[in-house]
Design goal:
- This protein is of the alpha/beta class and 389 residues long.
- The protein folds into 3 domains: 13-82, Winged helix-like DNA-binding domain superfamily/Winged helix DNA-binding domain (Arc Repressor Mutant, subunit A), CATH 1.10.10; 83-199 and 374-386, Nucleotidyltransferase, domain 5; 210-369, Nucleotidyltransferase, domain 5 (2-Layer Sandwich).
- Helices cover 40% and strands 22% of the residues.
- It contains 13 helices and 17 strands.
- The chain has helices at residues 13-25, 30-37, 41-53, 120-135, 176-184, 193-204, 263-267, 269-280, 287-296, 299-323, 335-338, 341-354, 371-383; strands spanning 57-59, 64-65, 73-74, 77-79, 85-91, 95-101, 107-114, 145-152, 155-157, 162-166, 171-174, 187-192, 213-218, 222-228, 231-232, 327-332, 363-368.
- The strands form 5 sheets. It has a 5-stranded mixed sheet with strand order 7-6-5-8-12. The protein has a 5-stranded mixed sheet with strand order 15-14-13-16-17, with helices on both faces.
- The two termini are 24 Å apart.
- The relative contact order is 0.12.
- The model has no long low-confidence stretch (mean pLDDT 90).
């Protein structure tokens, strides 16, 4: 096992495509790799050789024939999962959620801590202690983990490592990547949390094998991200695809961003909970029980969630009309909302009404992603640092 900390032998677009394909869809034969990437079999063999030598790839014990009548069976290539480990941290307003994964994004260690303070320096100290704990959870983790991904809400500039604005954390212009690098000594990649989740879905989730898709997240805020032509779209300022602050409700309640009619001002979980509390007179009601009331057919709660679902459908249709994705993954951290059939049906009806032409064929997929999945996605973002392009 090579653990010298040297970069992966991913040095050109061809090797990047091959490595990523094997990582996300392996085991896969050289013939299939050539077919899917457009490279020749000789080029695939040339790319694979240094990756095999460096211990990132191995030949699967499974054998497959390259085609009808082919004599010699192929040995599919697969990732060597324990070649390197990755740390992923999701920062919320109240918690740090951390995981350590292998190269297949399987979670090998996990930890959740309450945040003691929202000051950036205090969070970085806690985060560094969490990273140390995760890397020491097993004897082999520390020597094989050098990359850390951090997912945080708000306006995040991944290239510069800066958090321009995070409303939930009340941060402005925080050089987060530099601070964490100084505290941990690791290669640090920060990313907007929803964009990180899109990377996780693209490589290991509901977006595997889909070149064009969107992710919409329903929770304390409404987030979205886009993958177009197999690439995460960030835009000039890192905020491309910001659906939560797209107006879908006319002059409805003012949003925390200062605008009116924003999707987030209508469908965020905190606002839905407040609306159901007011309608029912139950000031102690939490979001899970608000969802269950609507599911059970309580008229006020049901009407509130139907209204939110229509707004979500309009927002998703706007996203689809502009970008034409094959699929939109609608993710919620609350499992009851994911299982709320009437809510899904209302989202689909509203989407269908607003979708233009063949956009109506866009597949809507509802998934449950707990906070640990966001930390796992942050670890996946850290994996991208292996690609030296």
């Amino acid at each position: 096992m090579i653990t010298d900390g040297s970069p992966t032998p991913v040095t050109n677009p061809g090797s990047e495509r091959v490595f990523t394909l094997i990582l996300t869809q392996g085991p896969i034969s050289r013939v299939a790799i050539a077919r899917r990437t457009g490279l020749s079999q000789a080029a695939v063999t040339k790319v694979a050789k240094p990756l095999l030598a460096a211990g990132y790839l191995e030949e699967s014990a499974d054998r497959e024939r390259t085609g009808p009548g082919a004599g010699r069976p192929a040995s599919p290539l697969q990732i060597r999962a324990d070649r390197e480990f990755f740390v992923g941290i999701k920062i919320t307003r109240y918690h740090l959620i951390g995981v350590l994964t292998d190269l297949r994004a399987d979670v090998l260690a996990r930890l959740t801590w309450d945040l003691a303070d929202l000051d950036p320096a205090a969070i970085v100290r806690q985060l560094a202690a969490m990273v140390a704990w995760l890397r020491d959870a097993e004897p082999t983790f520390r020597e094989r983990s050098r990359c850390l991904g951090v997912a945080v809400s708000g306006d995040v500039d991944r290239r510069r490592g800066n958090v321009g604005y995070s409303p939930f954390l009340e941060w402005h212009d925080v050089p987060l990547a530099r601070l964490i690098t100084e505290a941990t000594g690791l290669t640090v990649t920060i990313e907007n949390d929803v964009k990180a989740l899109a990377v996780g879905e693209h490589w290991f989730g509901a977006g595997v094998g889909v070149r064009d898709f969107g992710v919409v997240t329903l929770g304390q805020g409404i987030g979205s991200a886009l993958v177009i032509d197999d690439r995460l779209v960030s835009g000039a300022y890192g905020v491309a695809g910001e659906l939560g602050h797209t107006p879908v409700g006319g002059e409805e309640p003012r949003c925390r961003c200062g605008g009116r009619g924003c999707l987030e001002a209508i469908a965020a979980s905190e606002l839905l909970t407040e609306a159901v509390r007011e309608a029912t007179g139950d000031a102690s009601l939490g979001f899970p029980n608000a969802v269950r009331l609507a599911q059970s057919g309580q008229p006020d709660a049901q009407a509130i969630f139907q209204h939110a679902a229509r707004a979500v459908g309009r927002g998703v249709a706007t996203l689809a009309n502009l970008t034409g994705p094959e699929r939109v993954i609608i993710s919620a951290d609350n499992p009851d909302l994911v299982g709320f059939a009437e809510f899904h049906a209302e989202v689909r009806r509203s989407f269908t009404e607003q979708a233009f032409g063949s956009v109506v064929n866009c597949e809507l997929v509802f998934v449950h992603r707990p906070l640990e999945a966001w930390a796992r996605a942050a670890a996946t973002v850290a994996m991208q640092s292996l690609l030296t392009l």
